[in-house]
Specification:
- By secondary structure, this protein is α/β, with parallel strands linked by helices.
- The chain is built from 25 helices and twelve strands.
- An eight-stranded mixed sheet has the order 5-12-11-6-10-7-9-8, with helices on both faces.
- Strand 8 and strand 9 form a beta hairpin.
- The longest helix is centred in the middle third of the chain and has 90 residues.
- It is elongated.
- The N terminus and C terminus are likely disordered.
Length: 744
């Protein structure tokens, strides 16, 4: 029964199978265990030879609001209310300057823990191997010996002596780097606390260095603040002298200006002129109003005529005059008297004549008064006009004087502002200098210890247990990752399950790996012994026969993907296994690289398949019977130049039909599918195809492509034989325990 497999199955995406990953890791368990053991041993050896370090920590409180003796801004220049302030203090604690002061105070340069070796370790090991005389430099001896054997190298064997100053500088730099690497500054989150930690082999030294670092940090801040304050006082003092000179010069310029301009008080002078201008302006307005009124009246009188008493009498200004009103009353009285007398007396009467004469005199007086009044109006206009002009001249003089006073005031104000500005600056600097001098000796510490460092009781590093656990876990994870990566990169068939999951094909059996001396060694041959190799082929035989109980499938083709997968060996062993039950013929159809004749120790001229097709020999001449077996073998025969044409010829097909009448099974060994197309031609002539895959040989994609080519020609593939599986592989062991070791 042939397996019908759709070639599109190879393109289907599979779900992630975690079990498959565990199987891969189980196959690589011994390399992983070996790697983990080596890494753990190396880490253990390193930890056993590493000196322990103790850690001591002191906790420091950094004040954000510093105490001040007087209420002035801190001349030190740091705003403690900003968040960058604490970060700046942390960096100051880690500075090289403080580290140098700690090293100098504790004299760490001669401390045994910080004494650097004179030579590197490899040089010291070499010097220990050299025997030297007393007072002899071992390096000179080593240099002389090396020069004796390596004189041909372009090396200066007599270098100049090292510079002591340069060596001291290098030693100082190395000591600072070592000290800084052991120092740890850890701020406590959301607080103003900082932990100063130090690592040392001696726990007392670690505590001493941590406490000393905090003390020196506090002292450094106080010293820096004191130095800055003193420098500020010196600068303020020098600046005060300059400001005092500038203030005095400005005051002198102001005084000279006062004397030159004759000023007593600039505000009174300018105010007086301003009031005078206001009064003159008001007077001028009134004078102009009166002059205009007089001019209007004068013009009206002139239009009426000075001699026209009746017309002038109608003017309010004339008729309203006191004298005119008295004259009018006298005229009315005289007219009334004439009227009364005219009733009693005639015009010739003396009383009438006297009354008329009195009326005439009154009227003449009134005309005289009107003329005088008109003259008075002209004189009044002239006077008012002269008065207005005089006021205008006075106002112009007042304006000129006011502008001059304003110019003087501007200059005065400018000089006065300069004096006041210089005085304020001088007073400010004077007050700052006094305040700075007052706090110059005020040593209020901005930081203090809340917890002093104490000698540690247990080492802080290396943490051996944790490092060992990390080493085991890291090496295990790394080994597993490498194993999975190797399995993914190799992309070969390394497990029986992969035949079904990766190739979508049935697995007929698993053949264990056998030691071999050649390409087809006799140790690979099937035998009647109950060993694992023979049992594996019996398992393949049993599975094949059970699958073809109905159809028989006499013609069987065996092929592989690439050369070197044990295809020919598998064909021969499968034939031997079948020959125990049936009469079997093995035909070597791999005409390109035949191997059966040499393996069976047949002569090179042994006729075979090519001779049978060419009809140069009969079938009896081309068949060789394997001794003590029921197996006949037909080798490739004489080499031909066109193997594919030979296999595709009608003669080959007809010979297969003739041979199938004499044998129960015919096994055809063909060339690899991915190399040539011989197997594709042969697979169309047989009823069954067995595909051989070597453990870890061909890539899965290549195998899938070859199987797809067979499916394309409608080959009937019964399954895959996984060949050369190492006996220590879980796949082989599992199938071995399942099938047992008995014969089929």
């Amino acid at each position: 029964m042939a397996i019908k497999v759709d070639k599109d199955l190879f393109a289907q995406e599979k779900d992630i199978d975690l079990g498959q990953y565990f199987k891969v890791l189980w196959r690589y368990k011994w390399p992983i265990i070996l790697f983990v053991t080596l890494v753990t041993g190396a880490v253990t050896f390193f930890l056993m030879n590493t000196d322990p370090y103790y850690r001591s920590s002191g906790r420091l409180l950094i004040e954000s609001e510093q105490a001040k003796a007087v209420s002035i801004d801190d001349v030190y220049g740091l705003d403690s209310s900003r968040k960058e302030y604490l970060q700046t203090q942390f960096e100051i604690i880690k500075s090289r300057r403080l580290a140098e002061r700690v090293i100098e105070r504790l004299n760490l340069i001669v401390h045994p823990e910080f004494v650097l070796p004179k030579y590197p370790k490899w040089q010291q090991w070499l010097l220990d191997k050299v025997e030297t005389a007393p007072n002899q430099d071992p390096m000179e001896v080593v240099r002389a010996q090396l020069q004796q054997y390596l004189y041909w190298l372009p090396v200066d064997w007599n270098p100049p002596p090292p510079d002591p100053v340069k060596q001291l500088e290098q030693r100082r730099v190395l000591l600072l780097n070592e000290f800084s690497s052991r120092l740890s500054i850890s701020p406590v989150p959301n607080t103003q606390l900082v932990d100063i930690s130090f690592y040392a082999k001696n726990p007392r030294l670690a505590a001493l260095v941590a406490n000393t670092m905090g003390d020196i940090y506090i002292e450094n801040h106080l010293d820096a603040k004191l130095n800055v304050t003193r420098k500020a006082s010196q600068w303020l003092s020098a600046r005060l002298d300059e400001l005092l000179v500038g203030l005095r010069q400005s005051e002198e310029r102001l005084q000279r200006f006062r004397e030159t301009e004759g000023l007593l008080e600039i505000d009174g002078t300018v105010g007086l002129v301003s009031r005078e201008m206001s009064e003159l302006t008001a007077q001028l307005a009134m004078a102009r109003q009166r002059r205009d009124d007089a001019r209007s009246l004068l013009n009206l009188v002139r239009r009426k005529g000075a001699d026209s008493i009746e017309d002038l009498d109608g003017l309010t200004e004339i008729s309203g005059h006191r004298l005119i009103q008295e004259m009018q009353k006298s005229e009315v009285a005289a007219s009334s008297n004439v009227a009364e007398l005219s009733k009693r007396y005639g015009p010739k009467h003396n009383k009438m004549i006297a009354a008329k004469a009195q009326l005439t005199e009154v009227r003449a007086n009134m005309r005289s008064q009107v003329r005088k009044l008109v003259q008075g109006i002209e004189q009044e206009y002239t006077t008012l006009n002269a008065s207005a002009q005089a006021l205008e001249r006075q106002l112009e003089r007042a304006k000129t004087q006011y502008q001059e006073q304003s110019r003087v005031e501007v200059q005065y104000r400018e000089l006065q502002r300069e004096v006041e500005s210089n005085r304020r600056i001088y007073e400010t600097f004077l007050n700052r200098m006094k305040e700075t001098g007052a706090v110059a000796d005020f040593n209020a510490a901005h930081a203090r210890f809340t917890d002093l460092a104490e000698p540690a009781l247990y080492p802080a590093k290396p943490k051996k247990k944790m490092l060992l656990i990390i080493a085991v876990m890291a090496s295990t994870i790394f080994g597993c990752v490498v194993a999975l990566a190797h399995n993914a990169l190799t992309d070969t068939i390394t497990a029986g399950e992969q035949v079904e999951t990766k190739l979508a094909a049935k697995m007929l059996g698993i053949i264990p790996l056998q030691k071999t001396k050649g390409r087809l060694d006799a140790s690979h041959f099937f035998s009647n012994d109950a060993n694992s190799f023979a049992e594996a082929w019996r398992t393949v035989r049993t599975g094949y026969l059970l699958a073809h109980l109905d159809d028989g499938a006499k013609l069987i083709c065996i092929t592989s993907t690439v050369p070197g997968e044990g295809k020919s060996t598998s064909s021969y062993n499968f034939s031997l296994a079948l020959s125990q039950l049936e009469k079997v013929l093995l035909i070597e159809a791999d005409l390109r690289k035949p191997v059966l004749a040499g393996s069976l120790q047949l002569p090179s001229y042994q006729p075979g398949l090519s001779n049978l097709i060419a009809a140069t020999h009969s079938s009896n001449d081309c068949v060789y019977s394997v001794p003590d077996t029921n197996l006949d073998v037909m080798v490739a025969g004489t080499p031909v130049s066109n193997p594919l044409e030979v296999l595709a010829s009608p003669q080959f097909k007809s010979q297969l039909e003739l041979l199938s009448q004499k044998y129960d099974r015919i096994i055809i060994d063909t060339a690899p599918v991915d190399v040539v197309s011989d197997a594709l031609v042969v697979s169309r002539l047989v009823q069954s195809t067995i595909y051989v895959v070597k453990f870890g040989k061909a890539r899965r994609e290549l195998i899938r492509r070859s199987l797809t080519r067979l499916f394309a020609v409608h080959a009937k593939i019964d399954g895959i034989v996984l060949n050369a599986v190492p006996k220590d592989q879980a796949t082989y062991k599992r199938y071995k325990s399942y099938y047992g070791t008995g014969k089929s």
